[in-house]
Write a sequence for this structure.
């Protein structure tokens, strides 16, 4: 899958050279292209921002260099279709469902804002607006990295073990069950007996129950939307002691 990032700080994406995403790049499973709007400026200082009309604090990212960066990417990509996503705290909150949807695409273009924000007309250049959460970052780069990572790890061959992505938190609308590794006992706390039993059916039941318990305790909002079986409901009754 191709990832394109419009950013004033391409060097921040060097982080993608490491770990599993670095391997995925080397293996050609993902392809990351960064482009800076500064490349599409004509003045000596490579200016991409200006003061806001109407006054006020901070500088605003100008639409021209961003539009030209997007045009350049379109040309570079040839006939391949992309989806343009603008990073903004005013966008729809990013979730695993977005990552799943993006992982089906051939190409994803992430547009990072900076400074006090971007000219309103940049909104007209993108397909959707996404926020990492209800907080304000200095720029869209950290959000773009998070979105890229959440998406890329769902692509075939990136994790190495496809089951990990299927079992984990949010994959099926629930939080993941507790995980343990060696040692069997750590500072007085033992690994639950059932996980050492070798009884696969009992382990699966325990994990499902703990996943339901954890979701009920920490994110009851997720439980309301989850697709639960009759057995899940029975397990929930057991957890609630009803
Ligand atoms: C300082 S912020 C500007 C915030 C803007 N003044 C506002 O109130 O909406 C600069 C840039 O960081 C990025 N950014 C900040 N918070 C973000 C978030 N929660 N999710 C995604 N991008 C964010 C956006 O690209 C934004 O244009």
């Amino acid at each position: 899958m191709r990832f394109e990032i419009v950013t004033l700080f391409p060097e921040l994406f060097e982080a993608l050279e490491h770990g599993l995403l670095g391997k995925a790049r080397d293996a050609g499973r993902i392809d990351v292209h960064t482009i800076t709007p500064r490349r599409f400026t004509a003045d000596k200082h490579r200016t991409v921002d200006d003061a806001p009309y109407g006054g006020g604090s901070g500088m605003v990212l100008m639409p021209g260099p961003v539009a030209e960066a997007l045009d350049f990417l379109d040309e570079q990509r040839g006939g391949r279709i992309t989806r343009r996503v603008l990073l903004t705290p005013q966008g729809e909150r990013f979730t695993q469902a977005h990552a799943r949807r993006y992982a089906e695409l051939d190409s994803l273009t992430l547009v990072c804002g900076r400074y006090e924000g971007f000219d309103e007309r940049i909104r007209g250049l993108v397909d959707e607006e996404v926020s990492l959460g209800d907080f304000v970052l200095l720029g869209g780069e950290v959000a773009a990295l998070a979105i890229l990572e959440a998406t890329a790890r769902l692509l075939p061959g990136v994790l190495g073990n496809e089951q990990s992505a299927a079992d984990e938190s949010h994959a099926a609308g629930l939080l993941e069950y507790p995980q343990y590794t060696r040692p069997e006992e750590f500072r007085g706390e033992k690994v639950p007996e059932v996980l050492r039993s070798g009884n696969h059916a009992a382990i699966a039941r325990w994990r499902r129950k703990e996943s339901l318990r954890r979701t009920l305790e920490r994110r009851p909002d997720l439980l309301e939307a989850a697709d639960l079986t009759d057995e899940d409901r029975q397990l929930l009754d057991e957890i609630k002691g009803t």
About this structure: The first helix runs from residue 19 to 26.
